């Protein structure tokens, strides 16, 4: 053939009818004339094959083709050679030369058998065995390794704050989180939150039987909403058992830092921390989580998984909100500014000491690990219809569109009002040349407005007065911290404002900060309570009294990055492990935060409820050996 078709004209003895038609298009179309005695058959549809066959190519070593001829086109399809092999793929996230994790894949071809079915079974055996080992599932000693060994993939509800982490939360979720959990075979739905308390409202009306876990892709604030929403349901006793997880995409990622340490990873920030926590989530496994019930001055109650802060820590947290665009660097800038304008706050701290004290926090270089582990292997649930809210995107190709709803620091002793049992104060040599204590110094002769006077000025007595033009938020409750009317009763707490039982310890004086923390981390890179565990049933109280210099306070926070601040021997630093506490600020103005969110200022009290929640942590790691 020379690029066109040739046809021979057909003639008949009886020219009763003449039909004219053409094949193809353009000047090379072939004209066919025919004469027939009877009416012609109905015309063929344009897609009806006229001829079909398989052909080799020239030269002979080229590929084979399938040709299909219709009335209007010649379809040519390249045929793949016959292959009975099967394949399985392994996804890894090793560290590169610069320490960052990068996704790597290795695909293996199972071709040792003669048939595809046998090769596919072999590939499935290897994939199943690897998955069981990664998720801590037992393998049969002599039995057959089949996919039936694997439980039903857990169904996760992902809640994403698209504005978290300098606005990178959705981009990181789309580019890193969703591909990883899809490759791990997890089933998920995704919803983007649109406003404050949106996550709380969602979980309050959620059909919990449809889900095996709720995972927030944001900072600590979104998980605070989720937990308080679960505990504000009429069925809170069952709802609080819903496993929750966190994938850090915010500026404050304290709980994720504790999860990262529990999993055996080196300290990490940013995208590396997100990848570490995502890997742990994919491997499966949960851990009991203590929750702190906090009763505020108005009588409203909320639940905390992280911390209650007053003084320097809460000042930095709230006043650095205006630098949120800097991400986690806002806390560094806020700390510098807070040191420059350091204040003391007079108050009263009372606590119920723990029956069994935890290991001393002084040798804080090696951190003890959690001793128990719960494996998240939910029982198979019958398939059910999901409401329109839960439109799955787990099977859609990535990248995904942006949906609104998708299945995407005085050396003097602190005055003590009543002391029934010792409050452990850490003492020792502290400070050195050039460490001026933060207390009124009559020897300062520099003018008040000079830089030197500003550097060595004493701590202001009382809370900072925030001018209206400063742009800082006034000390009013944050809308994100809502009151909870349900949840477990606080049997250790008398009504706020009434006398405390005699077995409580009470301290009164001037404080630079007071921190009540549940897990080990105050930030992704700040280990405030290195000996704390998710389920130790304790609230760890740390305070810094007045008289500490700015340089000494800065050294405390620098040492906190390694969890070694208790070994510095700072006499102003105090610590106690408690089951409940009451904080009564005696300074008229200040800032109180719960899990980093501002609450109403005034007296509050709190009780620890051990292990009532479940945190998706992944398997525990081995100290000194990164998984």
| Count of extended strands | 25
Q: What's the CATH topology label of the domain at 308-354 and 486-612?
A: Tumour Suppressor Smad4
Over all CA atoms, what is the radius of gyration? Answer: 34 Å
The helical percent reads 10-25%
Average the pLDDT over all residues and give the rounded result: 75
Shape: elongated
Structural class: alpha+beta
Q: Identify the CATH architecture of the domain at 308-354 and 486-612.
A: Sandwich
State the major sheet: 12 strands, mixed
Gap from first CA to last CA: 65 Å
In the CATH scheme, the class of the domain at 308-354 and 486-612 would be Mainly Beta
* Fraction in beta strands: 25-35%
Low-confidence stretches: 1-38, 362-480
Helices, by number, come to 12
List the quaternary state of the chains: single chain
Give the topology.
Elements: E1 17-23, E2 30-36, E3 51-55, E4 64-69, E5 74-79, E6 86-92, E7 104-110, H1 116-134, E8 155-160, H2 164-167, H3 169-183, E9 187-192, H4 198-204, E10 213-218, H5 220-230, H6 236-239, E11 244-248, H7 254-262, H8 270-283, E12 286-295, E13 301-304, E14 307-311, H9 312-319, H10 329-340, E15 343-353, E16 416-418, H11 451-456, E17 460-461, E18 505-517, E19 521-523, E20 526-527, E21 539-545, H12 550-560, E22 573-585, E23 592-594, E24 597-599, E25 604-616
Parallel strand pairs: 8-9, 8-10, 10-11, 15-17
Antiparallel strand pairs: 1-2, 3-4, 4-5, 6-7, 12-13, 12-25, 14-18, 14-23, 15-18, 15-22, 16-18, 18-21, 19-20, 21-22, 22-25, 23-24
Helix pairs in contact: 3-8, 4-5, 7-8, 9-10
């Amino acid at each position: 053939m020379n690029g066109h078709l040739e046809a021979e004209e057909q003639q008949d003895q009886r020219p009763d009818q003449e039909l004219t038609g053409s094949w193809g298009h353009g000047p090379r179309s072939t004209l066919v004339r025919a004469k027939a005695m009877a009416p012609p058959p109905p015309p063929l549809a344009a897609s009806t094959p006229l001829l079909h066959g398989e052909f080799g190519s020239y030269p002979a070593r080229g590929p084979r083709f399938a040709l299909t001829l219709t009335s209007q086109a010649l379809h040519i399809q390249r045929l793949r050679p016959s292959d009975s092999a099967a394949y399985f793929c392994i996804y890894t996230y090793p560290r590169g030369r610069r320490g960052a994790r990068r996704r790597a894949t290795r695909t293996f071809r199972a071709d040792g058998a003669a048939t595809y079915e046998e090769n596919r079974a072999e590939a499935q055996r290897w994939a199943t065995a690897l998955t069981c080992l990664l998720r801590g599932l037992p393998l049969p000693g002599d039995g057959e390794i089949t996919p039936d060994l694997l439980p039903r993939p857990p169904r996760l509800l992902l809640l994403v704050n698209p504005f978290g982490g300098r606005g990178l939360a959705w981009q990181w979720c789309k580019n890193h989180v969703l591909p990883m959990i899809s490759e791990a075979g997890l089933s998920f739905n995704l919803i983007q939150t649109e406003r404050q308390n949106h996550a709380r409202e969602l979980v309050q009306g959620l059909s919990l039987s449809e889900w095996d876990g709720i995972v927030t892709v944001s900072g600590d604030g979104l998980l605070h909403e989720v937990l308080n929403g679960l505990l504000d349901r009429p069925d809170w006793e069952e709802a609080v058992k819903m496993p929750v997880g966190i994938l850090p995409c915010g500026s404050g990622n304290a709980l994720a830092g504790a999860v990262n340490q529990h999993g055996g990873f080196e300290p990490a920030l940013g995208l590396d921390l997100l990848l570490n926590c995502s890997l742990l989530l994919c491997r499966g496994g949960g851990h009991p989580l203590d929750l702190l019930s906090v009763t505020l001055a108005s009588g409203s109650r909320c639940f905390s998984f992280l911390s209650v802060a007053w003084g320097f820590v809460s000042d930095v947290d709230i006043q650095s909100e205006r630098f949120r665009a800097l991400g986690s660097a806002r806390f560094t800038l806020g700390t510098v500014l807070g040191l420059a304008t350091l204040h003391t706050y007079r108050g009263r701290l009372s606590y119920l000491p723990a029956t069994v004290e935890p290991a001393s926090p002084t040798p804080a270089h090696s951190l003890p690990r959690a001793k128990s582990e719960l494996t998240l292997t939910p029982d198979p649930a019958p398939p059910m219809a999901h409401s329109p809210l839960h439109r799955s995107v787990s099977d859609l190709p990535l990248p995904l569109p942006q949906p609104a709803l998708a299945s995407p620091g005085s050396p003097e002793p602190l005055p003590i009002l009543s002391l029934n049992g010792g409050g452990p104060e850490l003492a020792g040599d502290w400070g050195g040349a050039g460490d001026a204590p933060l207390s009124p110094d009559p020897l300062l002769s520099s003018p008040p407005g000079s830089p030197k006077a500003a550097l060595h000025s004493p701590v202001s007595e009382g809370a900072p007065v925030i001018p209206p033009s400063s742009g800082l938020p006034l000390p009013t409750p944050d809308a994100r911290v809502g009151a909870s009317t349900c949840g477990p009763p606080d049997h250790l707490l008398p009504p706020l404002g009434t006398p405390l039982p005699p077995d409580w310890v009470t301290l009164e004086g001037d404080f630079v900060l007071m921190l009540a923390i549940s897990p080990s981390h105050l930030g992704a890179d700040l280990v405030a309570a290195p000996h704390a565990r998710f389920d130790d049933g304790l609230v760890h109280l740390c305070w810094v009294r007045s008289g500490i210099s700015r340089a000494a306070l800065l050294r405390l926070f620098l040492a906190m990055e390694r969890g070694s601040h208790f070994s510095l021997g700072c006499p102003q630093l105090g610590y106690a492990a408690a089951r409940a506490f009451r904080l009564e600020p005696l300074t008229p103005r200040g800032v109180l935060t719960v899990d980093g969110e501002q609450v109403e200022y005034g007296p509050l009290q709190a009780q620890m409820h051990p292990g009532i929640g479940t945190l998706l942590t992944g398997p525990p790691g081995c100290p000194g050996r990164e998984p």
